[in-house]
Amino acid sequence: xxxxxxxxxxxxxxxxxxxxxxxxxxxxxxxxxxxxxxxxxxxxxxxxxxxxxxxxxxxxxxxxxxxxxxxxxxxxxxxxxxxxxxxxxxxxxxxxxxxxxxxxxxxxxxxxxxxxxxxxxxxxxxxxxxxxxxxxxxxxxxxxxxxxx
Amino acid sequence: xxxxxxxxxxxxxxxxxxxxxxxxxxxxxxxxxxxxxxxxxxxxxxxxxxxxxxxxxxxxxxxxxxxxxxxxxxxxxxxxxxxxxxxxxxxxxxxxxxxxxxxxxxxxxxxxxxxxxxxxxxxxxxxxxxxxxxxxxxxxxxxxxxxxx
DNA sequence: TTGCCCACCTGAAGCGCTTGAGGTCAAGCG
DNA sequence: CGCTTGACCTCAAGCGCTTCAGGTGGGCAA
Lengths: 149, 149
Known about the structure:
2 domains; DNA-bd_dom_put_sf (chains A, B); DNA-binding; Multidrug-efflux Transporter Regulator, Chain: A, Domain 2; 149 residues; homodimer
């Protein structure tokens, strides 16, 4: 998993991917856009070797990304972490904003599920030739559509 | 909103956008990728004019898109609608698959919300210099992280 | 030694849109 | 009548990745 290289542990991109949950392609992409600073390379092969500090940081990024946080917010997160000043309030706000975002998404998801479930029911009614059921569902779909926005 | 053109109502792209909830850019994009077949144009200006049939169809597409349905599924939906055969079962399956997709998304959202809410609490504790609170939250975050995947 | 496979590399294209730049057409106004 | 305004047009680039094509280095078996 890790190889010893002098006295520093170094991690391959494959292992970094397993540890963080970010794909290898995403790890390269994040480096390219400067979200993670240049990763040292193995002299002879040119392969990336992630050092201890980077491993911890990227692991955290993996969690944030897994919540759907934007790249910009991840940038801010890293900036707040690095800064010498006390950024606790900014951090709290960053996470609170993201909680609200998720909350809204959840609510929209419920509306969507209802609409799709009704559509499934509609076609199930048609499948069994149930014209009555069909005409009961149609107005419900119309109502559900309103909330879809 | 609509103009009369012979005996057929025709709708501008702006109005089509308002009706369907799809942006003008998306309407052009859907046409480009062949999801909606070529839209007739106004002779002199070259502007798109959506006819009655297209309006109804695109309105429906707008709802499906609003639920997060994939372009491929929308293609299938249109194909099933058009077909002469009885596609009720295929339709039902298509919608049921999408209900499941949303269901899974909702569940993942709950995990994400919990993780982010804990992170917000952590920084709130740090903000008020509450080391006790902080050490209570840290293990909860570790636990919540497990579910994130 | 040769050959092979694996992990890794880079660069480009694709996805589903959105955003922006730059240009045309028709109508209304001074 | 020219001028502005607005709605529309096309083409190109950007976003956050993913996927693919084509190539290199290193280790191991035959």
